[in-house]
Amino acid sequence: MYWNIKEIEAPELAQRLDSGGGNVRVIDVREMNEIKAGTVPGAEAMPMASIPVRMHELKQDEELVVVCRSGARSAQVCMFLQQQGYDNVFNLRGGMMAWARSGHQIGLSKAG
Predict the structure, then answer these.
(1) H-assigned helices in 32-94
(2) Which of 1, 7, 42, 110 gives the lowest tally of CB atoms within 10 Å of its CB?
């Protein structure tokens, strides 16, 4: 959908999280009212508009998976982070819609 953006499919993310997640950090960039309805279990709430001022909370050596409703906002955040030097950033392809469609658990976010 977007050029030069690495993407991860919902089943692959679920498998990685089920196996302990390793160094994967999931960031939900939707608005708080959207996030309250549920997200990828363990995802951190960081609405898109807050990313530029909260980038210092994201480590460049972490694997970041960015999530939104459909994958569009998260792709924009991935592009922005890549422009800032973050190389290990992945967009959840299809966003929460794909996550839910795949039958994966919907959880609450970590306070963000």
Answers:
(1) 32-35, 51-54, 72-83
(2) 1
Low-confidence ranges of the chain (pLDDT < 70): 1-3, 21-22, 109-112
Report the alpha-carbon distance of residue 70 to residue 103 in Å, rounded: 16
User: Listing from the earlier edge strand, what are the strands of the sheet with 44-45?
Assistant: 6-8, 89-92, 63-67, 24-28, 44-45
Q: How far is residue 35's CA from residue 31's CA, in Å, rounded to a whole number?
A: 6
Q: Is 78 considered catalytic here? A: no
Please tell me which residue in 14, 45, 51, 68 is annotated as part of the active site. 68
Who's near 86: CB < 8 A, 6+ residues apart?
A: 58, 60, 64
What domains can be seen in the chain, in order of their start residue?
6-101 (3.40.250.10)
Neighbour count for residue 89 (Cβ, 10 Å)? 23
